[in-house]
Amino acid sequence: MNTQNIMRILSKSGVCSRKQAADVVKQGRVKVNGKIISDPGFKISIRDKVLLDGRPLQKKIKKYYIFNKPAGCVTTRDDELGRETVYKYLEGVSEWVFPVGRLDKDSEGLLLFTNDTAFGDFLTDPKNLVERTYEVLVGGEVSGEELEKIRAGIDIGRGEKTQPVYVKYLSKQENGALLRMTLTEGKNREIRRIFESLGKEVVRLKRLQFGKYRLGELKPGEWREVQK
Questions:
Q1: pLDDT 10s digits, 137-152
Q2: Are 208 and 109 in contact (CB under 8 A)?
Q3: Domain 3-56 class?
Q4: Can 104 be counted among the known catalytic residues?
Q5: Residue of 48, 53, 78, 104 with catalytic role
Q6: Where are the domains of the chain?
């Protein structure tokens, strides 16, 4: 008989993250077949009856949201350094949701939230080649030769090289060059590391699109519900 970790079951039900589920179990809030369990690694089968705080787990209604992340907040629920997090802006969202991928503290723009783990896994798996489009302001000038290096794939350190990247020069700005870039990998800080490898600094980084989802007219800090 197939079994699954109780933390995974709680996470898939949409009540909390897998990390939070470990605390929920340790607090004695979960019963399986009438008995309190305290081991986050406890395995259960589809036939087992699970109660959380004395109530059966409800069938999860899958939800999807687009959020316009402001620069300066971090993409975590809690921050040990006391920094502002994206969840400050999601108080009107009643379900437990998680961010699909991340934007670093200084980046802004489109961030997807959902309680659908399979959906999130699909969008972030590099083999699915889901496109992410950004508007990037780079300090100084960017030459045609440098653009070609980016398009071909470039060494960004730590033994990593990017896949070919779509990049278009949009305009010259007072404080640099404005570009549009489309990636499919989502490596950690990929765009910033691309320009660091060229000796340049990213002044502003804004995500405009993730897969079929577009930022549209959302203002920083605002969110809207969307359909899958």
A1: 999 999 999 999 999 9
A2: yes
A3: alpha beta
A4: yes
A5: 104
A6: 3-56, 64-123+216-225, 131-210
